[in-house]
Amino acid sequence: MKTKTSIITGSNGGIGNATAKELKKNNYFVIGIDIHKKSINNDNVDLYLSIDLYKIYTDSIYRNKKLHEIKKSLPENSIDLLINNAACQIVKDFQSIKKNDIEKVFAVNAFAPFILIQNLYNELQISSGKVINVGSIHSRLTKKGFSIYASSKSALKSITKSLSLELGYDISILSIEPSAISTPMLLDGLKNKKYLNKLKKYHPTNSIGTPEEIAELIVLLGKNNSSFLNGTILNFDGGIGSLLHDPES
CB–CB of 95/18 below 8 Å? Predict the structure, then answer.
């Protein structure tokens, strides 16, 4: 029986770790990719590869070496599910943004996913595989200080739509765009629980999403065998994307 193979970038993050765990539960061979030297949870991945996605974009020798490592690690020389989940978020006001900030955010959030799809296309094609790009609500609704992050996620959305047109006869490409998710990074950044409760109330569901909910959704989309599920941009935002917030009277 063929082993279903999945690759997830950002596997050490809150969403990445939860997704790797869910994939393992559903009998995928899970290859986790992150910048750190070691996986935070070896039980959730079958193989961990330490890869700097910024260098995947900037360094051709490093890129070729790491792509060779990925391909060599595939049990069946094919990929059923590629999840571009890794992200870099730099929050700065417009005047403080440096050239390196722009390069790093776009490299990790948009250019590296494009490079991975392009270079792993043959392996995805063998299994009529699926690419799921984890975008952000910031591609359509954003706030001050998030200009380069929002722009990079808009670029990722455009990559999803454009490649779904070019490659849709062979593989499926779609995107999930979450709003606030209760990852350790989000929770660590909150100074008090009052803000968290206020953030929840801003969402029509009176809640924020969890990594486990996104993980279950990713696996569900991965299981869907319809090739017609292609080019889809799925909002995972508790309805906040439909909310018009007026000033209080």
Answer: no
Report whether pLDDT(1) > 60.
no
User: Which tokens go with 116?
Assistant: 């991975």
pLDDT of residue 220: 97
CATH of the domain at 27: 3.40.50.720
CB-based contact 21:12 (threshold 8 Å): no
Q: Is the residue at 66 inside a domain?
A: yes
Domain count, the chain: 1
Split at pLDDT 50, 70, 90, the class of 2 is low
Domain containing residue 75: 4-181+211-236
When computed from its CA atoms, the radius of gyration of the chain, rounded to whole angstroms, is 18
Q: Residue 195: how many CB atoms within 10 A of its CB?
A: 11
CA 216: distance to chain centroid? 14
Judged by DSSP in three states, 106 sits in helix
- In a domain, residue 243? The reply is no
- Report if residue 82 sits inside a domain: yes
Q: In what order do the strands lie in the sheet with 172-178?
A: 47-50, 28-34, 4-9, 81-84, 130-134, 172-178, 233-236
Q: Is 191 a member of any domain?
A: no
Beta bridge partners of 4: 28
